[in-house]
Amino acid sequence: MIRTPLSPYQRDIWVAAAQFPENNQYTLFCYDRLIGGELLAGSVLKALCCGF
Questions:
Q1: What ranges do the domains of the chain cover?
Q2: pLDDT at 9
Q3: pLDDT at 47
């Protein structure tokens, strides 16, 4: 697993989560890793934004 530094935005979310653990606003319940192949940006956007 390759670890990279957090972006300033990611660091701010981490700090807020540490300060206010009862607030689950930024809790992720799952994730997917995309490996190889062609990425269809329109399809990804549609999948992430469905229902909004």
A1: 8-49
A2: 87
A3: 80
Task: Answer yes or no: is pLDDT of 51 > 60.
Answer: no
- CA 22 to chain CA centroid, nearest Å: 19
DSSP assignment of 8-48 equals HHHHHHHHHHHH-TT--TT--S------SS---HHHHHHHH
d(CA 11, CA 49): 24
Among residues 34, 35, 29, the alpha carbon closest in space to that of 44 is found at 34
Count of other CB atoms within 10 angstroms of residue 12: 12
pLDDT given at position 28 = 66
Residue among 36, 14, 34, 33 nearest 25 (CA): 14
Q: Provide the whole-model pTM.
A: 0.41
Q: Helix, strand or coil for residue 1?
A: coil
